[in-house]
Design a protein that fits this description.
62% helix, globular, 354 residues, mainly alpha
């Protein structure tokens, strides 16, 4: 799992699921074709039962041997913070830095102020990802903390992924005084970084600036939707995800067109990019999203099935809940935790529709 993915994924629940897919290697055993009945969302007992099952799945995955699954479980815990606070608390002291990072980011996003004391020691963590996430957690929870290391990391850290994480955090904190710092960082050049890494950093800075009120940065995100080389696909996927995060309604039809686009050989965009598009469409209320996820829900690739589950969670409704219920029995643990997170999210949507 790329650590930067863990900073955003299933927390928006946001570990940036799509980038985790792009970083994944190997495939799980292919499940049987998913044939799911429509879930009866009008039955409060059935809705309660599936939510309890989802909570139990997340608790189980929080103890998994795979750190990526533990990280996903910690992030999913933000969807039921009262019931799953212990999962986040365990993540703070996890042996894996990615899990600790996700735990701190989750504390920030869910504003779990009760965990501030446990988070403060992470300010001295060996990992810069963990340290910056800890600053975010404490600042978001209203605790006293020195934010100046964020500026230092954004301008001076040798890792473009650390800088990208800091840019994301500054956007989330919502302090307009960070705008000059972000604009300065956009002009910085990192000799050791690859063009792909620099593009991801540029997009992360642009997203932060949009969140701080600079709508002039929206075209930067939209332009990245059109990769000209295979090594630009990760940036295209991130751009699609960001469009949903910042509710760029003007780009919604661009996303719809790209989801259906075929090149001269009749090939569609790669699955990872199309699923990122679907997730953004779902967040903006488009019914088109679930039909894209349906194409991959029985894929031989576990990461693609997990991404489909993420889309269903954002879509909500009886049909999506029916698919998520089946996916909680998937042979791949990452799919199970993604489906459980989807249930907690879509379950609330389903209840509100009745």
């Amino acid at each position: 799992m790329k650590l930067i993915s863990a900073c955003r994924s299933l927390v928006t629940v946001g570990v940036w699921p799509l980038l985790s897919v792009l970083a994944a290697s190997g495939c799980a055993t292919k499940p049987e074709e998913v044939i799911a009945p429509v879930f009866n969302t009008a039955d409060p007992i059935a809705v309660s039962a599936i939510r309890e099952r989802a909570i139990q799945t997340i608790q189980n995955m929080a103890a998994d041997a795979d750190p990526q699954r533990r990280a996903n479980a910690v992030e999913a815990a933000s969807l039921a913070p009262t019931r799953l606070a212990r999962v986040v608390q365990q993540g703070v002291t996890d042996v894996n830095p990615a899990v600790r990072t996700v735990a701190a980011m989750t504390i920030a996003r869910a504003k779990l102020t009760a965990l501030c004391d446990q988070t403060r020691p992470l300010l001295d963590d060996p990992s810069p990802h963990v340290r910056t996430a800890a600053i975010y957690a404490l600042a978001a929870c209203g605790a006293e903390v020195d934010r100046s290391p964020l500026a230092t990391a954004l301008l001076d850290d040798p890792s473009p992924r650390v800088r990208s994480q800091v840019a994301f955090i500054l956007g989330e904190l919502g302090d307009p005084s960070a705008i000059p710092l972000l604009r300065t960082s956009a002009r910085e050049r990192m000799s050791a970084a690859t063009p792909e890494q620099l593009k991801l950093l540029e997009l992360q800075v642009a997203e932060a600036l949009i969140k701080l009120g600079m709508d002039s940065q929206r075209p930067v995100i939209r332009a990245a939707l059109y990769p000209s080389r295979p090594d630009e696909l990760e940036a295209a996927a991130l751009a699609a995800q960001i469009i949903g995060e910042v509710n760029d309604w003007e780009a919604m039809y661009q996303l719809m067109n790209l989801a259906d686009y075929r090149d001269s050989a009749g090939q569609k965009y790669p699955a990872e990019v199309r699923l990122a598009i679907a997730a953004s469409l779902a967040s903006m209320g488009s019914k088109r999203a679930a039909t894209i996820a349906d194409e991959y829900v029985s894929s031989a690739s576990g990461p693609l099935r997990a991404q489909a589950a993420f889309v269903y969670g954002r879509t909500g409704g009886p049909a999506s809940l029916g698919r998520l219920e089946v996916l909680m029995d998937d042979p791949d643990g990452s799919v199970r935790v993604a489906a459980a997170a989807g249930v907690l999210r879509s379950g609330d949507i389903a209840i509100s529709q009745n």
